[in-house]
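Dear H.,

Thanks for agreeing to be a second pair of eyes. The structure we're designing against is below in token form, covering all 162 positions.
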């Protein structure tokens, strides 16, 4: 069994419902959910003139190999109405593989650990909630350490009632 940590997020439609639908789809198609962070709100990153995002980290146990997991995720995004029109643009759902076991994957369409993880507070905050002691396989630092060192100043607010 493999352990993967995913980040779900979106800024279009019913954002909370979309995160819940994504978690349900992941549980049905990708593996057993072992951890679910709270929901965090963040201003848009990269392309800032759009609604704020809600994000959540999901820990799963899966029998899928990394590329197979990516294909399942892309299928879930498509079924939920995701259209890839512009980089960093608005989206109903986005699901990224942040970590997969302690593996390092460097394929044209998949890099694990996620190459921007250490630069994105909106990913590190919810990940630290469910996997603070996990050691980044390239940097050999815990997720908690990476969060402390993160230079991203974009505020990340945990929602109290989700």
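And this is the sequence the design step returned. I haven't edited it by hand at all.
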């Amino acid at each position: 069994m493999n352990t993967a940590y995913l980040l779900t997020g979106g800024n279009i439609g019913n954002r909370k419902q979309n995160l819940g639908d994504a978690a349900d789809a992941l549980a049905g198609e990708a593996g057993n959910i072992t951890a679910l962070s709270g929901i965090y709100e963040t201003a848009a990153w990269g392309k800032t003139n759009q609604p704020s995002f809600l994000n959540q980290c999901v820990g799963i146990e899966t029998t899928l190999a990394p590329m197979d997991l990516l294909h399942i995720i892309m299928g879930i995004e498509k079924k939920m109405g995701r259209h890839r029109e512009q980089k960093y643009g608005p989206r109903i759902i986005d699901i990224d593989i942040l970590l997969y076991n302690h593996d390092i994957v460097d394929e044209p369409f998949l890099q694990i650990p996620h190459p921007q993880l250490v630069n994105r507070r909106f990913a590190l905050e919810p990940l630290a909630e469910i996997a603070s002691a996990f050691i980044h396989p390239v940097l050999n630092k815990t997720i908690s350490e990476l969060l402390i060192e993160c230079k991203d100043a974009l505020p990340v607010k945990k929602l109290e009632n989700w």
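Two observations from my side: The radius of gyration is 14 Å. The mean pLDDT is 94.

Warmly,
E.
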